[in-house]
Amino acid sequence: MQNKLRIMTFALLFLTMYLPIVAAQAQERDLLELYRLAKIKDPAVIRAAARLASGRAEKDIALAALIPRVSANGAVRQFWHKVVDYSPTEMNGEYTGYSYGVVAGIPILNMPSYYQISASTAGINSAESGILIVHQDLIIRLVDAYIRCLKAKVDEKLYRGELNRTAKVLQQTEAFLDAGTVDIVAVYEAKARMDSAAADLVKTEGQLRLAQQNLASLTGVEVDSVKDITVTTFKDPQPVDMKWWLDTMRQHSPNLLQTREDLRQSVENRKGASAGHLPTLQGNGGYTVDKGSTFLPKVETQQWYVGISIDVPIYSGGETSARTRRALAGESERRAMLYDVEEQAIKRLKEAYLNLEYNVSLVEAYRRKFESAELQLKSMQKACDMGTRTAIELLNSEQSYAVSRRDLNSALYDNLQRRLELKSAAGILDENDLAELNGETTLDAG
Description:
Blueprint: H1 2-25, E1 28-29, H2 31-41, H3 43-64, E2 69-83, E3 91-109, H4 111-179, H5 184-219, E4 225-226, H6 242-252, H7 254-274, E5 280-291, E6 300-311, H8 319-386, H9 391-426, H10 431-437
Parallel strand pairs: 1-4
Antiparallel strand pairs: 2-3, 3-5, 5-6
Helix pairs in contact: 1-4, 2-4, 3-4, 4-5, 4-7, 4-9, 6-8, 7-8, 8-9
């Protein structure tokens, strides 16, 4: 029985020493590297970029309706003719005729096209805001997955350390049992603690693999290890003024900006549909050459011309009215969406602000808990040296110290994440915030 326990103890000690070395040899990736990879792979980013390209093409199409157009034409025809009742005798003949020319036209007054240009400009602005939306969302998703991975690594280290400590206590207890200074119950208790730490370690390793898989799904590459983001400080909302954050959100939130531009696009589309009742005016001119006619088959006519044409819609079967009603309904829908998006944006920002405030209070509480656990551990170590406390009691203090350190470290990670979430809710989160994270430093759970 005791030999089996010793073998298990040595095996666990070997694993706790060897596995961290293997993990350290894995390729370590940092946050910015993973973000660049995620930007290339993320479908939402690709869709947003495609929408922007489509919007720019749409504006070019709208502009083309107001730019002069030039076209050339030509034709060659063989004619066979018969003329009756023109002269006393029937006239038969044939000839080859041809024509060619250059025609130019320029819109002078075309209100639907002007409104279409305004609508397409709003569409481009909406697509640009969409780019910001998906980039900010990707930053939040990536940071969340990254921090989950870091937390899992901290938990793994905590339980690996607990396993190492309990294995040493088990060795000591077995030695005391051989010397007859303790009973078998102490050995069983130490063994139970070691088994519990081993089970927690297995669970944590599974969570770490899931976190790494989540990062791999976002970035498209295998993620075996990530660079730590160390943090020693935590911050309140800066500035500590809810009104400032709300005003900033109303000015910079890409969700609000996009919805406003979508509404403006709907308004311009409605104006353009209604302008279908208005007349259009176009200037035109050109040069033509025609050869051949029934009575003058060899005569060629060359002529220049310039003019102006007007088109006045009178009746189109109700199409213009129907288009106007459809555009008006779309405009009403966009107005309702703007109201809803603004309400949701305000709610999201307030939640992010309050979550950060709560996190600051939590960090302060965990710091006090950590300081108390540290003092308790020092006292327990002295008492154990004096022989007034047992190894199991010391193990409990060491575990409390490690857990409080882990909790504080986790709260500091959360502080980073909550600050980014607040910036995202206000619409001012960008890639520079990721770069700043690499320059911050963290308590390391032992």
